[in-house]
Fold this sequence. Notes:
The chain is built from five helices and two strands, in the order αααβααβ.
Amino acid sequence: MTPSEGARAGTGRELEMLDSLLALGGLVLLRDSVEWEGRSLLKALVKKSALCGEQVHILGCEVSEEEFREGFDSDINNRLVYHDFFRDPLNWSKT
């Protein structure tokens, strides 16, 4: 099983890991690489936080807002605040 398959599988171990990460509170930094993709873990953390009633800020610089929001239902998407650095990374469109 690859790391991304394991993250998508949603086994008890992954859910336990998510719970322990969220219990710490504060900032969680994920590192994404070819060997260990982090997007599925990130989306799982976002979903879990949003379902707990938290407002989640996303600083998007690699994928568009639409692509990031794919797969989330409207309850979760309503809790996301997306800061788009994907289309205008230097903020040139706003003077």
